[in-house]
Amino acid sequence: MFANRRLSFPGLMAPQTISYVKEGSKSPKKINQYRLIQKIGTGTSSKVFLAEDEKTGGLYAAKVFRNNKGCPFSEPFQREVINMRELKHKGIVQLHEALYSSSDDIAAMILDYADLGSLDSVLKKYKTLSEKQIATIFSHIVCATHYLHERGIVHHDIKPSNILIFSDGSAKLTDFGIGHSFSSADCVSGSPAYQAPELFEDFDPETEPPTLDPIKGEVWSIGVSMFESFYGFLPFNGSNQYQIAKDAKERKLIFGNEITPIFSNLLDSMLNPDPEKRFSIIDTMNHPFFSKGRQEILDIPKPSIPIYDSNESSVLEIKAENCTNEISRILSPKIIRIPPRSLSNS
């Protein structure tokens, strides 16, 4: 479908001007009015920059896609734009603009900027968080996940690197580029360390494969992320996904005096290897642990923002286009839909 990437978007976007500096140049980078200050992340087919809107002074995250050998950006870019345009929730990162340059094979998504970075980056720096901080952050993530499930949507890859946190106490899910059918083996599409053990169970290939509940799988992923946020390490170990799943099924988690009974009860219920006995997202959301999580300023220092050199003498001007909602005609939406029957016990 995407053999000719330059002709993928004709007639669907209104022309705009985009300024961008090619890789290898030391000149400032600028996408329309968005000044790229520094790189803050890297994906499979994209790089994420801290960007300042010169018109308003506001800060955003600019996710910039550029075609690489063997990894064309067209499909992941379009899929993520389509998915995010359907989602409006305070616990989900919002898409402000989507830009595409047909002449230079560059695309950009302008997103909310998290001033404290990802939860993963915070944990790498501070190792662990307090129960109060965890309750504050994950109260938003659990509510956002419930919002997705109510709409038949599965994130499929909830983990600390896909949780962005803000100094006002809010937290938001990001990275909605994954799009596989939940009813097939392709549902094993996230990071193995955060995936529920039932996804890796062996079954007789001559019989009907077991029905998996993706909602219970998301509860597991959140539980693993909360455990890691408190202890600074993952609850289950192994050199591959099957060994991790085996450890999860065979080893009982033992909690000590360093954790309150209310938090250990929640983690134990979310990390039950039996999905039938595991908490639902509703059980999780209503657990009294989250009463600790009033939205308030998080006592985590903000990363410093570098001073930007205003010399723009060699910025390269490239004609680009603004992606319209009709982009969905090009690529069928890849959001994963859960059958209504699966929602009844969520």
Mind describing the biggest β-sheet? 8 strands, antiparallel
**What is the top-level CATH class of the largest domain?**
Mainly Alpha
Q: Beta-sheet strand percentage? A: 15-25%
The end-to-end span amounts to 36 Å
Q: Which regions have little confidence, pLDDT < 50, spanning 5+ residues?
A: 1-25, 179-188, 327-336, 340-345
Number of helical elements: 8
Write down the CATH topology of the largest domain.
Transferase(Phosphotransferase), domain 1
Structural class: alpha+beta
In the CATH hierarchy, what is the architecture of the largest domain at level 2? Answer: Orthogonal Bundle
Q: Tell me the radius of gyration.
A: 21 Å
| Widest sheet, order of strands | 1-10-6-7-5-4-3-2
How many structurally independent domains?
2
N-to-C SSE string, H for helix and E for strand: EEEEEHEEHHEEHHHHEH
Can you count the beta strands?
10
Describe this structure in words.
This protein has 346 residues and is an alpha+beta fold. Helix content is 25%, strand content 18%. It has 2 domains: 5-114 and 306-330, Phosphorylase Kinase, domain 1 (2-Layer Sandwich); 119-292, Transferase(Phosphotransferase), domain 1 (Orthogonal Bundle), CATH 1.10.510.10. It contains 8 helices and 10 strands. An 8-stranded antiparallel sheet has the order 1-10-6-7-5-4-3-2, with helices on one face. Strands 8-9 form a two-stranded antiparallel ribbon. α3 (131-150) packs antiparallel against α4. The radius of gyration is 21 Å and the shape is globular. The two termini are 36 Å apart. Mean pLDDT is 76; it is low at 1-25, 179-188, 327-336 and 340-345.
